[in-house]
Amino acid sequence: MKILMILAIAAVIAAAVIVIEIYREVHHFCITHYTVQSSGLRGLEKEIKILFLSDLHNRAYGANNEKLLQAVRDESPDLILIGGDMLVGKAGVPYDSALEFVRQLPAVCPVYYANGNHEGRMKEYPDAYGYAYESYRQALTESGVRFLENDICHVTINGQEIALCGLELPISTYRKFQKDQITADDITDFFVLSPCKGNGKSSENLPELQDEFKILLAHNPAYMDAYLDWGADLILSGHLHGGLVRVPGLGGIVTPQGFLFPKYSGEMTKEGEQTVIVSRGLGSHTLNIRLFNTPELISIRLKPR
């Protein structure tokens, strides 16, 4: 009987510790630093610092997100890349917090924004969301944010030519308990057939990207095999919120689509000459749970090999 009581008390203490830790992680973020070296960075004269932000979901760290904004400023990046889901795509849910935060970023350095599934569904179903995506996009574009909606932008930083490729998969690819078949050819088609103004690409001239260092912003890491086959040098994803709970040695537990133990969930992985970085994200929604899975702002240093 005494042993049972001790076990019960221990269980209560353990549960309380877990609850406190979940609360702490949900309300704090860290900065994760990665270094990427690649033979594709042949023209790089000195290192480039990139900040990667994803899955904020309207979360605010401090008044007007000042803590997060100051962390961005302190990193002194050359480039800010956004991987989507900065807001919550739900009818009637305001996006003011995300908007006010993101619109201040171009004052730090150039900002490029690829959509996630939340922006994607607001865009795909404008009637259901009161045309909120158009207002959100216009306000950020006017502040200097460059959206990459199945679009490719070419930049040169510190002597290195870089192709910034923002992939926007159809909303159907995010269905619960399902996974579509996406291939490298499909990805090329998304870029080629995109109606985005200024794309200027065709299937004939896309191979010219092989001469540049290719960074692919692709929100959902479930289709990583296709991204790797497509030939990106650096792939940046998010979406999984780190798998909610992370287990040392195993990584994230579950994806938003209901699949267990995803291969890529919140880490940097080298695949030959290619690099995969999946963000644990900066916020959460629906299941406001994180354990051993602190939200993160990712700082990437590109260095010549």
- How many domains is the backbone divided into? 1
Continuous helix count: 7
CATH class type: Alpha Beta
Main sheet attributes: strand count, strand direction, barrel closure: 6 strands, mixed
Main-sheet strand order equals 1-14-2-3-4-5
Structural class: alpha/beta
CATH fold field value: Purple Acid Phosphatase, chain A, domain 2
Helix content: 25-40%
Topology order in helix (H) and strand (E) letters: HEEHEHEHHEEEHEHEEEEEE
Estimate the strand proportion. Answer: 15-25%
Q: Would you identify the regions where 5 or more consecutive residues have pLDDT less than 50?
A: 197-205
Spatial extent as radius of gyration:
20 Å
The N- to C-terminal Cα distance equals 64 Å
Based on Cα principal axes, name the global outline. Answer: globular
**CATH architecture identity:** 4-Layer Sandwich
The overall pLDDT, averaged over residues, is: 92
